[in-house]
Amino acid sequence: MTTLAPTLSNRYFPTISARVRDIFLIVAGSLLVAALAQIEIPLPFTPVPITGQTFGVLLIGAALGSKRGAAALILYLIEGGVGLPFFAGGARGLGILTGATAGYLAGFVVAAYVVGLLAERGLERSVRTSIIPFVVGTVIIYLFGVAWLGISLKSFEQAIQLGLFPFLIGDAVKLILASLALPAAWKGAQG
Hints:
Blueprint: H1 4-12, H2 18-37, E1 40-41, E2 50-51, H3 53-64, H4 66-81, H5 102-120, H6 131-153, H7 156-163, H8 168-190
Antiparallel strand pairs: 1-2
Helix pairs in contact: 1-2, 2-3, 2-4, 3-4, 3-5, 3-6, 3-8, 4-5, 5-6, 6-7, 6-8
């Protein structure tokens, strides 16, 4: 099975080579996550802000598939790492890739890949099953993020308090929105 973005790009741009379409999708995916990263609500008690990034990661993984989705997130990390203001709130540079939120950023790549794998099996096409890839992706982001934050803070208990609990409600909303958006997009693409 294929995912939404390659299906649409093949349908609307059949004369463009698959490689060029893939490059376009990967770059577009990285730019979408960068744009959503600018939606930031800093929390004074934690180094981890609320952002739109996780929503972007879930969408990119599901829409682009495993390899393209992971490539888009790797490109996003490279873009921010080399100095483009693409990380949360316009942050940039290699320091972000080793700072307190580095685990979340690494988790983005793995989550996009796994969400993409599940989407390639068609789980994001139905409202009944679409929540599965997004829950799995969110859990992966938390595992990487909280683990690295725990190392950074030298306390896993504190990392859970600062890097997990404050985000559960917002991330639940994001994954519900993603689980409604993808089936609707597929329905629109088929109709």
